[in-house]
Amino acid sequence: MFKMNSFVLFVLCVISLAVYAKANEKHVVCYYGTWAAYRNGLGKFDVDNINTDLCTHIVYTFLGINTRGTVVSLDPYLDYPENWGKDNIRKFVALKDQNPNLKLILAVGGWNEGSAKYSIMAANPKLRKNFITSAIQIIQKYGFDGLNIDWEYPNRGDSVFGQDDIDNYTQLLKELREEFDKHGLHLSAAVASVKSMASLSYDIPAISQYLDLINVMSYDMSVASGRVTGHNSPLHKGEKDVVISKENLKTVDGVLEYWLKQGCPPEKLILGLPLYGHTFKLSDPKNNGVGALSAGPGISGPYTATNGFIGFNELCVKLRKETWNIKYDNSSKVPYAVQGNNWISYDDAKSLTAKVKYALQFNIAGIMLWSIETDDFLGICQSDDYPLSRAVNIALGRSIESSSTALGTSTSNPTSSKPSTTAPIQEFICKDIGFYSNPKECSSYYYCVKSAGGNLVPKLLRCPNNLYWDQENQFCNYPDQANCYA
Predict the structure, then answer these.
(1) Can 472 be counted among the known catalytic residues?
(2) Tens digits of residue pLDDT in 262-283
(3) Cα–Cα distances in Å, from 45 out to 80, 251, 313, 376?
(4) What does the CA dihedral 5, 9, 15, 21 come to, rounded to 10 degrees?
(5) PROSITE patterns annotated for this entry (predicted)?
């Protein structure tokens, strides 16, 4: 009897530990910007590029609403199959075939949607009902696990009802929660981060009752339209910052202090971190520190093509191919780069790791990444794909596999556009860092990169279907425009 009881106790302990470990696993919420499907060359990002091992939740952005409060597609050609569309939503929800544990979330809203429509919808019981009913219909029709509300922002911007938005937003979430619980659906929200903005928009203790996760957007703390240079997402205040309380600072530590003090449960708080940077044009190249006078937005990346903004996948190539003075702010714990009158604030693996480790001391629920298509998802700059996302996973203590057992061998997601070894890369000899056409075929090309030992090593990459490598323009192009005759 004693042996049987001991065995049962042992089994129960093992089960309890397993449940505890699962319950305490940190979340990685990955936002996926669907518009990247229209980018050219190496910036083009489709569902097939998503690495499902690096996220616990993936958020499909964005759907919107119409004047009746009904959830509608903002890009039917991309989202749906009708009229020869790309059927992107169905492809997205099929990601569960690769990782059944994934939570696939539909996001409604976003910066471009503004505030007015949501202010009107949230103030009207009939429109709220239309919103909730239509959201559930789409979620269930396609197989999403839940909804992410990204109203930017209640009581701000072009809001119609001003301060009434605060209570109306809470009421909307309350009604969503009641209906979602009937169907076992997940409910989360993306929210403003720093006190000066969040305090205008949210009753934090109230909304925390109804949300499963609260994704705090801890970035864009300094933007290129500002008068001076500044960090996109500093962990701590800089040496030149005035002495004020943390919660009033535009810093990650200030954001955490404010939200937790206001009553956001740490087990629901998701800290949002950026996979992109902001670029500034210096007024005086000689005055190039943090807080230097800025003449406005700086350079754009070749894929995102927006002055003042650059994805990490664009920046890492630029930093390797060009001469930049890379500096590290020891107070704010983030890097920045200077070249002439160009100034860039960004994050690297080191700075993201520092933020994650700092946040973990508050036992928060996890990290949100905005957004995965601006990580180095092809592994152009390093031997692994998604270096920033991987760094965050590692810092959270999540077990992940390398994307390659050897340079150029993809293993973690065979359907994504990662380096391939269908041809022996040893036959190609690199003369310098950069992109080169494959003399044996037009549908693939080489990227020559320095290995850890300093040697030039070729990585074989493939163009998307029906495209050829265009050596002159340095991207995958239509065959009749690529000038390739291999």
Answers:
(1) no
(2) 999 999 999 999 999 999 999 9
(3) 17, 30, 11, 11
(4) 180
(5) CHIT_BIND_II, GH18_1, GH18_2
Q: Which pLDDT band, with edges at 50, 70 and 90, does 383 fall under?
A: confident
Alpha-carbon span 277 to 53, nearest angstrom:
25
Residue 261 has pLDDT above 70, yes or no: yes
Q: What pLDDT shows up at residue 246?
A: 65
CA distances from 95 to 143, 213, 237, 343, 384 (A): 11, 21, 40, 38, 21
Selecting among 25, 82, 113, 152, the annotated active-site residue is 152
Q: What range does the domain containing 364 cover?
A: 23-276+348-395
Spatial distance between the Cα atoms of 437 and 104, rounded to a whole number of angstroms = 37
Structural domain contains residue 287: no
Same domain, 366 and 437: no
Angle of CA points 416, 485, 436, to nearest 5°: 55
pLDDT of the residue at 247:
64
365 and 478 together in one domain: no
For helices 252-261 and 349-360, give the axis angle rounded to 10 degrees.
20
Beta-carbon count within 10 A of 418 CB: 26
* Tokens 């300093």, located at residue: 454
Q: Are residues 472 and 378 in the same domain?
A: no
The pLDDT, as a whole number, for residue 450 is 67
Residue 309 inside a domain? The answer is no
370 pLDDT higher than 70 = yes
145 and 186 housed in the same domain: yes
Do 391 and 429 sit in the same domain of this protein? no
Torsion, Cα 173 178 180 181, to 10 degrees, reads 130
The tally of domains found in the chain comes to 2
Tell me: do 357 and 443 sit in the same domain.
no
The overall average pLDDT reported for the chain is 88
In-domain check, residue 294: no
- Specify the pLDDT at position 403: 58
413 lies in some domain: no
Do residues 194 and 246 make contact, with C-beta atoms less than 8 angstroms apart?
no
Alpha-carbon gap, residue 151 to 30, rounded angstroms: 18
How many CB atoms sit inside 10 A of residue 402's CB?
13
Helices 164-183 & 116-123 angle (0-180, nearest 10): 70
Whichever domain contains 207, its CATH number is 3.20.20.80
CATH for 443: 2.170.140.10
Q: Are 143 and 100 in contact (CB under 8 A)?
A: no
Output the CA torsion sign for 81, 86, 90, 94.
Answer: positive
